[in-house]
Amino acid sequence: MINLFTSISPLGFLLEPLTHEFMRRALMVSALVGGVCGLLSCYMTLKGWALMGDAVSHAVMPGVVIAYALGLPFSLGAFVFGVGSVALIGFVKQKSRVKEDTVIGLVFTGFFALGLVLVSKIKSNIDLMHILFGSPLGISNLDLQQTLIISFIVIAILLIFRRDLMLYCFDPTHARSIGINTGILHYLLLSVLSLAAVAGLQTVGIILVVAMLITPGATAYLLTDRFDRMNYLAVLSSSISSILGVYISYWFDIETGGSIVLVQTLIFLLAFLFAPRYGILKFTNSSSP
Amino acid sequence: MTESFTSKAESNFLRIEAEEICVDYNGNLALYDASLKLKAASICGLVGMNGAGKTTLFKALMGFIRPSRGKIRINGLTVPKAQIEQAVAYVPQNEGLDCSFPVSVWDVVMMGRYGSMNFLRIPRESDRRAVWHALERVELTDYVNRPIGALSGGQRKRAFLARAIAQRASVLLLDEPFAGVDVRTEKLMADLFLQFRQDGRTILISTHDLGHVREFCDLVVLINKTVLAYGQTSEVFTSENLSRTFGGMHPDPISGAASLE
Ligand SMILES: Nc1ncnc2c1ncn2[C@@H]1O[C@H](COP(=O)(O)OP(=O)(O)OP(=O)(O)O)[C@@H](O)[C@H]1O
Ligand SMILES: [Mg+2]
Fold this sequence. Notes:
The complex is a heterodimer. Chain A is mainly α.
């Protein structure tokens, strides 16, 4: 380690990892997935869906295991279980008097437990650690393809329905009154959430996906009062965190998912402290309007 | 810039038609046999005590709650069709919104135009003009770039009214627009409503201020879980009717001040 610092120039510090095929792939996938999750995180934080994000990302676990066991694309299994958990949450909430956050917690832990049980029972070559903690450095070709496709679907949906989804998060009553079908938007957003969780699972794993789905949005929210700018900032901070995280993980030989999320958390902390208007240490000069 | 709705305003075109509406919340009756017919170019006051079902009637007219019985038509269309045609604009009593949402006043008023845009909701020049015009009408042009959360309560109310104006609907449903606004804004709104009536639009306004009703509503509906009386303001505002509406506590029809029977 020490040698590395003394023997490599700062530029080499950035370029040396790029000579490895696996690092180029890891950086690309992580940046893309970071951007996708970052974009979605704006809606998650504004809609107050942090717990929902946590739920969906954990609930995809049994789907991933079953898909692997059956030799299906893992994203398919994950998507089915992600959407399934959401439908189940909606159903239980409607049919019982139990409060929503309780139902969410109940359903996702149930699904997650099922996933753990399945992993221990189905003797396959699934590496539990990869599902739980992600492994962008060792991503397979098939996983890479799936992640790319998912990312483009999510981006397309979020860009096409950008305004409608924003309106839905801000004022669903008005959305309905001008003839927009908010029921469809609700499930569209949840489907996108399931897809993004599947993509995020590739880089940071199931346990930390929820960070990808809320932290960039929260950071951006501290920095601006405009929805569009919030989108750019979230995507930017999320992609940068992912790239930095992968580099750090390479140089210091630490767990990649953890390092990506830690960088994200640090960026949030910086915004929390120093954001021009909403940071706790306001450095705005009083002369500015 | 005034647009006219006269093509449908002429004759006795019915803008709002509600027939024997019944609404219950999990078995608690909030509204029964409520019927109402409003022609084009009219301003109608909706008066009743707290819990009388005013907001419930609005929600039923907007299709937000499904009546257990009854029929509703807006401009002769079912509610969903009318909404798709941007025929009806609704300003709720309290928006109950997250006002820390990162949108500016301009963005909020632009939302009134979404229904008329293509599916990507890219504003055209005409949309921008409509938004600016609406902001002028409520005197909020100095605040276009303010975050919606940085407005006062009354200014926010004007912003949401501007959004309804920008929508250019022929039917406006306003739930207590005068609550918490200053005298100047009251005057501004009243002028606006009179102008809208001239354009051929129909406005249903719920209010607790009977003075307002006298001033500019040509029609009035008194409700208490059902329509108690309905018609020309001068004919409906009798002390007997008001007493029935407010259950003994009846406000003076002129001053609006409460007096006990
Ligand atoms: N979501 C709800 N669930 C159950 N009951 C409700 C609900 N909303 C309203 N109600 C009841 O229905 C009745 C009518 O309420 P509504 O809000 O329509 O009154 P209102 O005339 O608008 O009163 P206010 O002048 O206070 O605004 C009330 O008795 C109220 O308690
Ligand atoms: Mg009300």
